[in-house]
Amino acid sequence: MASAPDSSASQPANSSETSMATKIRNLLIVSVAVVLSVLVVLGVQTQTPAASLETLAAEATPLEVALTNNKPSFVEFYANWCTSCQAMAGDMADLRTAYGDQVNFVMLNVDNTKWLPEMLHYRVDGIPHFLYLDPSGEPVTTAIGEQPKAIIASNLDALVSGGELPYQSGVGQLSELDQTAPIEAASRDRGDDPRSHGAQAVN
Q1: Is residue 34 annotated as part of the catalytic site, yes or no?
Q2: Among this protein's residues, is 37 annotated catalytic?
Q3: I need a labelling partner for 23 at 20 to 30 A (CA). Which of 38, 69, 105, 107 fits?
């Protein structure tokens, strides 16, 4: 007479196989998590930081130096809130790297009332507003709004060589300026009422 199979013998085997499968699965999950963590850390470390307007401004040539060091200058009137200025920050950093030893890169923040005379003199009514100056500080041409990097590079090549700039008075996407804001701010700094004759005189 045949005996019934012993089910108690197969249970430990099944239990041990299940335990081993669970360990392997957990080990795979931990391994994948470690690999992903390492890739994320490496990605963050190797990623080049985006250029910022604050960094560009901090590294810019002061205007008074640019006007006296006998090098041509590329001046940008900008503001930290200007989306077009922000969009061009990376290109501006690249151009400064390529031309910084031959051209002064000057950044003038239109929210700083210190630059109001320059804004009025160069008729800055939208930003970014770019100004190309020859080595003696005389304006060669202007460009307003977002400009392709290749166009700026071509103009800078010509500016450095003393030739005629191939792209004159370009106009791209820009941020409008509130013309009364810098004047009112300057008036407040002087203690004037913006509606007084002193404020009207600079219009």
Answers
A1: no
A2: no
A3: 38
